[in-house]
Request: fold
Amino acid sequence: MTGGAGFIGSSLVDRLLAEGHTVLAYDNFSTGQRSFLVSAAANPAFTLIEGDLLDTKRLNASLRDVDAVYHLAANADVRFGPDHPAKDLEQNTIATFNVLEAMRVNGVKRLAFSSTGSVYGEAQVFPTPEDAPFPLQTSLYGASKLACEGLIAAYGAAFGFEGCIFRFVSILGERYTHGHVFDFYRSLKNDPTTLRVLGDGSQRKSYLYIGDCLSAMLVGMEQTRGAIQVFNLGTDHYCRVVDSIGWITEQLGVTPRLEFTGGDRGWVGDNPFIFLDCTKIRRLGWAPKLTIRHGVERTLNFLRQNPQLLEAGA
Amino acid sequence: MTGGAGFIGSSLVDRLLAEGHTVLAYDNFSTGQRSFLVSAAANPAFTLIEGDLLDTKRLNASLRDVDAVYHLAANADVRFGPDHPAKDLEQNTIATFNVLEAMRVNGVKRLAFSSTGSVYGEAQVFPTPEDAPFPLQTSLYGASKLACEGLIAAYGAAFGFEGCIFRFVSILGERYTHGHVFDFYRSLKNDPTTLRVLGDGSQRKSYLYIGDCLSAMLVGMEQTRGAIQVFNLGTDHYCRVVDSIGWITEQLGVTPRLEFTGGDRGWVGDNPFIFLDCTKIRRLGWAPKLTIRHGVERTLNFLRQNPQLLEAGA
Reply:
């Protein structure tokens, strides 16, 4: 599990350990949290390696005796890409190449990869299916994940790699450490009277609860063999930013004045509408159990119970 | 002009010089040929920098006072990708990132990029349009070019870069130094009685003559402003490998026995059918002047007149 100390990675570590698997987590703790691995560390089937994916020597040595790689480590920050363009290249594209090469030299061929709905750029078809029209990239983050997808598929063709590429919507839930719920809660905790909202609040986004995300990944990996498969992961609904703000402020019991920065998107490369067609993964028997609203509420509960994360976060 | 000493790059150098432009060629001569720049070197409007795109210091210094970048340097070898997976990553993806960063720090925003029809993987729609269904990559080469395309589009969105991504079919003509005409001619020169053919010879491919390719690139760059545009470049026809062999052997006056290695493709990642829909670039007024057969014949003539290239080639 690369990124094994991260939000999704550590949650998947716990899930796989609970299912009786032996799990090796690899993380450089650039954004991962040691506290997320406390439970795992008590399990003898768990091993942690503190390492960077750009350290190919350590990485190659770590993949001995591994059956499958869940590659979740990434620079997951879509918004600040233009501030440091090399970061997505290094931590996503090159890091993924290093993972694939480490798998190849160790004879490991099964892989799950966390991609993103951002690879659709500004989609023209909603809900957006996996075989949507060939998109033009709109963010450095999406471009780097697209590059990773291409590498993985090419390794599939060249070296017989198999497994799944999962294109996530935004994931919410326990251990969530960045994103709009995080930003809004931190802001409202500091000042409950005013909330600054990027864009005009009409941006429509999809969110998936972490528990549903993990189930989908496991279903995908269990039920696909042979060539690399691509699956969208999301819910059958979307919400507007202002809807989510309504749920958050209601739960917190605050009534801030909303200050919109204006425009139909929050930042350069922001996508004003993300809504994925998840028919393909649903055909394997998976369905999300939580609504977007429930996911937002659980996320907020988690953040309220873990105030230390607010200081650690982005 | 990155890759300014290469087949397409040096041809475009000559064309741009003939049109009165000032041209700076940047090439590491890994596959470029000094002989291709003899004519250019006699022109005071031409400068050559011998440098590698991984040498960011030299690259950044070279892009001062540049209006537009034609980024043609690449590892253009689609067939041997699995023998050295890092090569496509370094020479295509990372090199392109370095070009984009050098442009950004120098305030250069116009770009033409040589991509490939290989980014369509094994297309499901023929002729394949630019907005074909989101493809799965089948070669490390295609994956690396897709990564470059994504980076370029993201730089367009983030930093206002403009220009064209051209998805080429195989290009033929004078200064051609690798590919099937090269391989077949070299083989028949050594032994005109037998010709080994990868696959079953039924693979259907498109080819475009270099002169037509250059015209299309210039038309695209002249007529598009604003966001990054993607254009397929090819002819409205395709041929089978055995058709091309027929033209080559007829021109050489030889009648080899054909030994097919078998299977519907020549190598891992070979695409048995490449045929691009070029309606979009044709709408700008461009049309190819030479047929595929004429392109093959001119290529063969050029190779016969330049036997020294057969030893230099791959």
In short: Chain A has a mean pLDDT of 94.
